[in-house]
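[job 4417] fold queue: 2 targets
>>> target A
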Amino acid sequence: ICRTAELHAECLLNPQYSVNVIQPMINALTLRPSISQQICLAFNYLAEASPNYMSHSQFQVNWNSNVDPIIEGLMKNAFRQDVGSTHQLLELSFLAIISMVYATSSTNLADKYTRTFMELFKNAVGSSGSSERDQILQECLLSALQICILKLEGNISGNLFQDVYTLITEYFKYIDNVNADGIYVISSLATSIGPKFNEKLADFWVFLKHAMTKQNEPETINSVFGAIQDISRSCRSEFAKYSDEAMEFLEACLNNQSLSKELRLNVFICFGDIALSVKAKFLPYLNHMFSYYQMAYEAGLNLSESGAADSLDYLEQLKDKLIESMTCIVHALCDVQEAASTLVGHFRYLFLFIKRTCERRLNPTVEYLRNCLALEIDIIDFWPQGVAEFVDRDVLTYLVEMLEKFTENQQNRQIVEYAKSKLSKYN
């Protein structure tokens, strides 16, 4: 059943068969742990595959009617007492629960389980000891809570927002510390509540600053990256009050060799999100920040030339995140006249990076080609005279021709049409 769910989910998700399969699977959760673990994995695979079938109304009704009973069965399974010292069943049960909540289209279900997970977390913190299982349970509950809140984006009530925020900050005070799981929950709150998070920004920044000092805890640092991105997007111009401290932290991370190079790439995404939030107030950071981009370009080009197999994944991440970040910065500052000379001066290096990393021999992804073309066309559109001397029309023509091979994809088709329209008017 588990392998069928993984490789041929349609066999179990088809309403014709699922009516006779789901309940026996729920019942099988009560069997010995080795079997129950496989059923947890099966439910996880089914949840991951379910969005592919949501366009069929019969399936959607059937699936949504089963989600609640499945989650209830998994919840009971997570708290079984007959599993000895192993934590695997607990973790796999919550893995499936989180996937089920994430896959459902029902915000009512997310709201219901937000309250459930909050109560369970309160009980777990108040009554548990410091055993490994206690810690894993708390982590699982916080992860589940985070997903529920994200599912409520735009639909979270003010009372629930306040209750979740209080739960996490009181938890931080109780443990006299901060941790990644709690910060992820607050980040999800910021995403779900939007500008209303401004009410809590000053209060939460105290906790986030504490997390920033944990440079030897990669997971905590990564959660801070996520919080900076989510909170800056939600709070917009209000985030400018904290941008100095955020930028100082991000630079420290770039220079911290104990953090993995993959993790440090997220700093560039943070730069882009902060720029989009504070607009012109990002200008004081621009010159100094671009020195890091130029070092990243150089590192990327060197890796491209070396062809080292063990660096290919890192290189793809570096290219994607640099282009995503620069796209944000370009759109953030396109109307800021004072930024024009600094930006245009930097674009020379950016265009060279795009030209060399998009070469056919390096097998760039279609998505990367599309993002690079979109970025270059936007820059030409915003600063046509400033960049005229180093625009390489051959590169632009090449990017258009490459993407024309994949115009069955709507995004590719739109950017090709957009690029052709802009280039036809550009001399």
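>>> target B
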Amino acid sequence: MDPDLPEDRPLLFPGNGPVQDEEDYGTNQQIQKGVIVQEPTGTSWYASIFLVVNAALGAGLLHFPRAYDEAGGIVSSLILQSILIVFIMGALFILAYSSDQHRSPSYQDVVRSLCGKHQHLICSLCIILYMFGTCITFLIIIGDQFDRVFMYAYGPEFCAKWYFNRKFTIGVSAVVMILPLCFPKRIDFLKYPSALGVFGVLFIVVLMPIKYYTGNYEHVEIKTRPDAWTNVFLALPDICFGYQCHVSSVPIYSCLRKRNIREFTKTLIFGFGICTVSYSVAAVFGYLTFGTSVNNDILLSYDPKDPLVLVAVIMIAAKMFTTYPILLFCGRIALDSTWISVLQVHPRDVINKEPRRRITQVLIWFTLTLVLALFIPNIGVVIQFLGGLAAVFIFVFPGFCLINLSLLVTRWNLRHLLQACLGVLYVVVGAFIFGLVTTQSIYKDVEGGDTSSKLGPCD
């Protein structure tokens, strides 16, 4: 093999055959007529749609109708959402373009290759915190859905049964249904359970218009404008939290069978099309159904004895089961890079001991999130801060990557200048949203927290 070429670069043997295109990077060997050729592996662009949708479409869907109410109604919310989507999708292309510069396989590796070690450490810690907190939230949501199902089936008496206790049901269901999906080395393994999660959320999206047209909801008060113009920004954390799939997007892009912007564009157009329609339909019809009285969790506003609502409850629990492993995967990559950097692991051990390190990190992560979810049933303040962190992933780090890409060139032209200005714009917008969301979170905490938060049926 040519020593100037990387060992994992796919080649065509024997003789002086050409090196395959970069889009076929990462392949399996097969022998055809005595010649060893390489066949592409990885995920197709249409299979990756499920990964993108499953990463972006989740628990935030349940909060969108309430966010529309806080922002002053449907019109103002849709305008704000449409503006942010332009920036959100732009950031995904920035990350994919930045990832190609050094074939970076993860979000934090992109930041390290373009922004340096210090920014890489900060980024990794932010990812760990965000993914860890979101995993805890998902486990709590799973417990809430179990409680609602048991309340419907057995009434308040279910609280007296130890095998219906939320600590038992969360623990058993998480170990049986989530933990086995957390050990794979590559994220494309999750494309099959992701399909189940996507269809589960889409069922909830379809349910809301059906309930609006078939239900008997009278005397609904609908806002047509915000109480104050600044109230429009109250929906920022919900939109950022809902559409944040950027940390997952780089591993998804890296696992594409044909890794190039053109293939990724097709994935994003269809994936974000599904997400945008789903969030908008759920928010609009959920808000029109209940108006200003809509609950923070839209499913709590419906009659739990309705069979379709009960199915929706089960579906959202299934969504949490299939999304948790994706979040753990991204968090584990950040944890692993930090682990290697802080402990200064020898390069040989980085490869040879990877399976043992991966299993250890998964078990520690899973155990800690499970324990916290069992004994801390309400982490509302943490979730509010997660909305601010989502803005950092969507705007700040992609902006810095774009700025540093511009600084790498020796001779600037108009394109490089516009690229740097766009990067500065992303950083400024991200810093503004992070500061605003964090300030809102602190203000709500000082004022006594979210009064809409309720104890469980057994508390």
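[job 4417] complete. Note on B: The CA atoms of residues 8 and 26 lie 7 Å apart.
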